[in-house]
């Protein structure tokens, strides 16, 4: 049955296509990777009697296509490498860290608290507490803001936050019936009891349970949701492919020009040293047009080329109170400012987190869209990004779905994900949030801007947005 959102948005008063709203010339590979330095200083978001929280620095190991170089490792191996890289990059004394928090989505059962195992493996003191959080694609966002809260509340001064995902080796379980049988067998005391339990076995008990790829509440995969969302907002296949090509082309330029400075080399045990992301693959619109729909067949518009790919990777950030950072002799990269989390209908609005979160975080910070110099949004699918653009630029949607008087407006492409995004750099579910924040911080430093806005959607119809402010040079 056609959803309410799909039915109503067919009448959405958008008299333009995305391609005409945002000219195709802005999607070409010749687009400059930097914008003009800001000539007008804006107000700072420092608040009286409120601690300033800063990012000293952040790193990530290269994000790799699942099934490639990291395939024989475990998640804590990747997280440990990121933590070691952070130690090397910042030279922070290991005993100066007060707390460690990591985000992940699909947990390895042997290391369910991957933050603790990775911290011990990286050489941190066993006296430093560590815990793991999960919030789908915004898990490391949650790790960062958890650290933010710990520092802001005065409990700690120095927190390491990060995230990790290893899609090359996800846990596959026995069926529930088989698990129940095995537990009963383990409790059986006598031979007779064991034989009685064993007699309940059936061959179909051996069918494995794969990790869920669908939303639990809707039984729909995210790819299907992206396809329906693109259709609801009249985002064409050509527009999605154009955006994906833009992401890969800009990521390639950024990689070649050495702008992705958060990436650190990782010597993979028994293999070569990995130095760069391996999913950046600019193609051509002609080649992309040949791919068949990946989810809604045969008429869908979401394909492998305009979707983020399964990725292995890990990230880590050093977060402190500004006072502590200066006392330790650091020059921070950025302030972490206001942030919000949002939730909406996981059926029809699963991927619209940025649309809902952006106006809320801007209002909280007392800023407007024009004040933002750098935008870093998570790219789950091209269709998801472009649908968010249209929703953000629609008074009708703002009034009918968001309870707002008017639209917030769509981010200008010349400020948006200009070093590539999740479509090209990769998306290890638990690690992307830290990448977004470091990309925003590094772009602000390079371009001379003051404010960055990070936003992401997540499974369950949730989302996150945060304001990042450049640290004064």
UniProtKB/TrEMBL annotation:
This is Trifunctional enzyme subunit beta, mitochondrial. Belongs to the thiolase-like superfamily. Thiolase family. It is found in: Endoplasmic reticulum; Mitochondrion inner membrane; Mitochondrion outer membrane. The gene is HADHB. Its main location: endoplasmic reticulum. One of its GO terms (biological process) is fatty acid beta-oxidation. Residues 330-469 form the Thiolase C-terminal domain. It catalyses: butanoyl-CoA + acetyl-CoA = 3-oxohexanoyl-CoA + CoA; tetradecanoyl-CoA + acetyl-CoA = 3-oxohexadecanoyl-CoA + CoA; octanoyl-CoA + acetyl-CoA = 3-oxodecanoyl-CoA + CoA; hexanoyl-CoA + acetyl-CoA = 3-oxooctanoyl-CoA + CoA. InterPro entries: Thiolase (IPR002155), Thiolase-like (IPR016039), Thiolase_acyl_enz_int_AS (IPR020615), Thiolase_AS (IPR020610), Thiolase_C (IPR020617), Thiolase_CS (IPR020613), Thiolase_N (IPR020616). Mitochondrial trifunctional enzyme catalyzes the last three of the four reactions of the mitochondrial beta-oxidation pathway. The mitochondrial beta-oxidation pathway is the major energy-producing process in tissues and is performed through four consecutive reactions breaking down fatty acids into acetyl-CoA. Among the enzymes involved in this pathway, the trifunctional enzyme exhibits specificity for long-chain fatty acids. Heterotetramer of 2 alpha/HADHA and 2 beta/HADHB subunits; forms the mitochondrial trifunctional enzyme. Also purified as higher order heterooligomers including a 4 alpha/HADHA and 4 beta/HADHB heterooligomer which physiological significance remains unclear. The mitochondrial trifunctional enzyme interacts with MTLN. Interacts with RSAD2/viperin. It is an enzyme of class 2 (transferase). It comes from the Eukaryota. One of its GO terms (cellular component) is endoplasmic reticulum.
